[in-house]
Amino acid sequence: MKLAIHKLLIIATLIVVCTSLAVAHHSYSAFDMTGQKTVNGTVKKFDWTNPHTWVWIDVVNEQGVTETWGIEGMSPNYLARRGWTRSTLKAGDKIAVTVRPMKSGEKGGMWVNAKRPNGETLMMGGAITDP
């Protein structure tokens, strides 16, 4: 009986720990969810990686200095179901990206949307694309 109770306690502890980790992973605490900022730049790199994609954009600041912004996006699986591929963004692409900025003031944020020079809007959310 003691062994069964011991196993139940271990299982319960694992469930609590794993649930806590999953909730912590999806925290938006690093981002200012009340504001948005748009930056114009050139795609340096698009990381099609789990658990989140990353877009690295070179942005020229007011002083004429190029700064690299790191912008977090949704997972490849999520984006693929909405028509994205690993080549949707390529190095050299010009885009204006709207982000939820970092609370820390670092150069980066969470992807909201982007526009290409031709006016095409790139959203990471929305309806699933039929295959």
Structural notes for this entry:
With 131 residues, the protein is of the alpha+beta class. The chain has a domain at 37-123: Nucleic acid-binding proteins (OB fold (Dihydrolipoamide Acetyltransferase, E2P)). 22% of the residues lie in helices and 34% in strands. Strands 1-2-3-5-4 form a 5-stranded mixed β-barrel.
Key features of this structure:
alpha+beta; OB fold (Dihydrolipoamide Acetyltransferase, E2P); five-stranded mixed beta barrel
Strand tally is 6
Overall geometric form: globular
Helix/strand order, N-terminal first = HEEEHEEE
Tally of individual helices: 2
Please state roughly what percent of the residues sit in beta strands, choosing from under 5%, 5-15%, 15-25%, 25-35%, 35-45% or over 45%.
25-35%
